[in-house]
Amino acid sequence: MKFLVLLTPVAGRDPAEFRPYAVAEMQAVWNDYKAGALREIYFSPSPLIVSVIYETSARDELETLVARLPMVEADLLSVQIVEMGPMHSFEVLFAPTAA
Fold first, then answer.
1. What is the pLDDT of residues 27-68, one digit of tens each?
2. What is the pLDDT of residue 86?
3. 77-81: long-range contacts (C-beta < 8 A, 24 or more apart)?
4. Strand 48-55 relative to strand 38-45, pairing
5. What are the structural domains of the chain?
6. What is the pLDDT of residues 74-85, one digit of tens each?
7. Closest CA to 29 of 45, 50, 14
8. Following CA atoms 73, 74, 78, 81 in sequence, which dihedral angle do they give, to the nearest 10 degrees?
9. Which residue from 35, 30, 39 is spatially nearest to 2, judged by alpha carbons?
10. Is the pTM of this model over 0.90?
């Protein structure tokens, strides 16, 4: 299953709080990439959002991976998970038209 994970700073957190976790966070992300679970990652500076595409066998597996990210564990990043699936609406293109 594919998931879009949106990571955003928790309100009220100071940017300096993130620095001690930067290397550990990148190591964790790199490990997920090497393992094949993390497929894509993007950064938006304004508003600050890290968008990550994960592919796992189940949502609980993904939740475990994301929960162990150092900045998530430290309550610096909030997590929004969106399950992604096929776009079945394209089928309308091939449906017989009404007379």
1. 999 999 999 999 999 999 999 999 999 999 999 999 999 999
2. 87
3. 77/7, 77/8, 77/9, 77/10, 77/50, 78/7, 78/8, 78/9, 78/10, 79/5, 79/6, 79/7, 80/5, 80/6, 80/8, 81/3, 81/4, 81/5, 81/6
4. antiparallel
5. 2-86 (3.30.70.1060)
6. 999 999 999 999
7. 50
8. -10
9. 39
10. no
